[in-house]
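Subject: for your reference before the review

Hello V.,

The reviewers asked for a structural picture of the protein, and I figured it would be easier to keep everything in one thread rather than splitting it across files. Below is the amino acid sequence we used in the manuscript, unchanged from the supplementary table.
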Amino acid sequence: MKTQNQKAWFFVLPVLLLVAFNALIPMMTVVNYSVQETFGNNLFFWQGLDWFQNLMRSERFHAALGRQFMFTGLILLIEIPLGVAIAMSMPRKGFWVSVCLVTMALPMLIPWNVVGAMWNIFTLPDIGLMGYFLNHVMGIPYDMTQNVFAAWVTIIVMDVWHWTSLVVLLSYAGLVSIPEAYYQAAKIDGASNFAVFRFIQLPKMKNVLTIAVLLRFIDSFNIYTEPFVLTGGGPGNSTTLLSIDLVKIALGQFDLGPAAAMSLIYFAITLLVSWLFFTLMTKDDAR
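And here is what came back from the structure prediction:
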């Protein structure tokens, strides 16, 4: 009888311990805060599920969640098709391949807080290059600090500039992995460019596009630094996304119980929607 060697678990154990320390222990702390109330001095009082019930009835929470879904939906609708289109227009051979890849990767190398600060200065109405050009050259009234539409356009354009590159690089990797024989067969059959995209390129990019959608959903749904540095959630609360509102409750108001309950709901929504995306995009593979 052949015996199994279990020594490999010793190599996995450090990873499990690291994950437990960085994820499970903080998660249990959040769960503990979400069912209790504290007034400082390390004194806690049992609160039960009251914080969750209050959040479900809170108009503030629903408004912030709606803004978060709207932001993420717009990001996905813009960045996924745009990233695929840019990837398809990039060269596949020669010197310009490296130039295009490096250029595409540059925005992702900039830290998030620097991106927010950079776009804040860039879009100032009087001294920012974009703000001055729109207001004084084009004659378009633009002030993201006062106009809700301008603030939303600015944070959307900022995120598209920062993260479309990720979709481009993933899509390009899927495109270059397609064997040349597929294109030769399509050319012999007289297939149009759209037919090549529909029946050859898009199916071959399906796996990388699934990764791109999941990554962009998770990142955009949990975005905080860039819009906070850029608009601070304003004007008013128009760009106060769920992540920004959560930080305001936790650190600004120091309401740890409601903040913990909101973070757990936030986490559950992220997991649920990510699972739905993954299930829908891979259901054909499961068959």
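For the response letter, the relevant points are probably these. The CA atoms of residues 85 and 168 lie 8 Å apart. The domain at 51-286 is CATH 1.10.3720.10 (MetI-like fold).

Happy to draft the paragraph if you're swamped.

O.
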